[in-house]
Amino acid sequence: MMNYISMLKEHGLKATFQRMHILEVIGEYGHKDIDEIYAEVIKVHPSLSLATIYKNIIIMSQSGVLSEVPVIGKKSKYEISKQDHIHLICTHCGSIEDKNIFIENKNSLDQLVISEHFNLEKKEINLYGVCSHCQNIKAS
Amino acid sequence: MMNYISMLKEHGLKATFQRMHILEVIGEYGHKDIDEIYAEVIKVHPSLSLATIYKNIIIMSQSGVLSEVPVIGKKSKYEISKQDHIHLICTHCGSIEDKNIFIENKNSLDQLVISEHFNLEKKEINLYGVCSHCQNIKAS
DNA sequence: CTTCATGCAAAAAATTTGCATTTTG
DNA sequence: CAAAATGCAAATTTTTTGCATGAAG
Fold first, then answer.
1. What CA–CA distance (Å, rounded) separates B8 from A134?
2. A59, closest nucleotide (Cα–C1')
3. Whole-angstrom Cα distance, residue B61 to residue B26?
4. What are the tens digits of pLDDT across the range B65-111?
């Protein structure tokens, strides 16, 4: 588990407490959008401004510390960057769960990329549906 | 090839010329965002309002005529709904290309969904990178 | 003709910017 | 200290809304 100070410094960003706090919130919850991050963060630091959240989300996404997860019909969520994985996105409660799977079919994707002469930078696989938790709620 | 009038009617939407025009633009280009649709559409119908574009994108997305394609760092694009496919998204020129591939590894995704008791509604696979066209431009 | 859709202008929401002040390394 | 980051308020951009008018089925 890498610490946020070194993550920031390795990307040439100063480790302000505002950034640390933003990263802690995202790290704790996994995926959060701008408003959720702001709401969470001002509980501890009421003076932390929304503009600072915006500026930092942008700079930390550009530098690669964070990754944007665009979601159909909603605002983008942000997560701490990590190796490629799959998102299970619940269309009922909005939760996002990460799944690391060994993409066997990796082959077909890789072959596609090769045959298209496409210079791949990032794979994004999102599965939308109803999570088991929400299915149980509905059933009861 | 299905025509747009019946597509709309099957979803309980009236076939106004504004909707037809929006669908034609999206169909012609494949993927367009709100502003691009508006810019294209007012060439022919200068009085068509942006509010109408918004309202229709929303209602046609909800009804399933259109599908939203959220893109990292950009505004969402919209496409005519069709069966699941892969998007090759160029981070250089912004173009999006559809690819229908036989997901062999379909198995691993399907197994994941089953083991998670996830009620799958939609698969979204987006590959980000530099398209062959942009690579050639850079090289020259 | 009745219901639904449009267009306009206004309102609301989301995001960005400029700049004086503060903090980090 | 010098460079970078913050916070505030203002500006901009994006999206939504209400309502009178017009079009579709």
1. 31
2. D5
3. 13
4. 999 999 999 999 999 999 999 999 999 999 999 999 766 555 678 88
CA distance A50 to A42: 9
**Domains of chain A and any CATH numbers:** 1-81 (1.10.10.10), 83-140 (3.30.1490.190)
Between helices B34-41 and B17-29, what is the axis angle to 10°? 110
Q: B95-108 pLDDT, tens per residue?
A: 999 999 766 555 67
pTM confidence score: 0.94
Half-sphere exposure of A25 (CA within 13 A, CB side): 23
B130 contacts in chain A (CB < 8 Å) = 118-119, 121
Distance CA B95, CA B63 (A): 26
Tell me, what amino acid is at A84?
D
